[in-house]
């Protein structure tokens, strides 16, 4: 399941960190399956990597927004 950035932005940083952990685990499993020749859909690896990048991008955006709001006080 690919998550779009707009859906990810509705989550908290803790939820995003959990999503990141889940996708990293899925990526590990996909790579393992690929290594032993059981993976049918190799394109899924690329999709999961892109989703991980989206999650990390949204986490960073939220961190930057938090730093900016803390700096304005």
From TrEMBL:
- Gene Ontology MF terms in the entry: structural constituent of ribosome
Domain of life from the UniProt record: Bacteria
Q: Which UniProt keywords apply?
A: Ribonucleoprotein, Ribosomal protein
Q: Does the keyword Ribonucleoprotein apply?
A: yes
Question: Which Gene Ontology cellular-component terms appear in the entry?
Answer: cytosolic large ribosomal subunit
CDD domains recorded? Ribosomal_L29_HIP (cd00427)
Q: Does rRNA-binding show up as a keyword for this record?
A: no
Instruction: Check the record and name the Pfam families matching this protein.
Output: Ribosomal_L29
Q: Which GO terms describe its biological process?
A: translation
Could you say which protein family the record assigns here? Belongs to the universal ribosomal protein uL29 family.
**What protein does this entry describe?**
Large ribosomal subunit protein uL29
Lineage, opening ranks: Bacteria, Thermotogati, Synergistota, Synergistia, Synergistales
Gene it is expressed from: rpmC
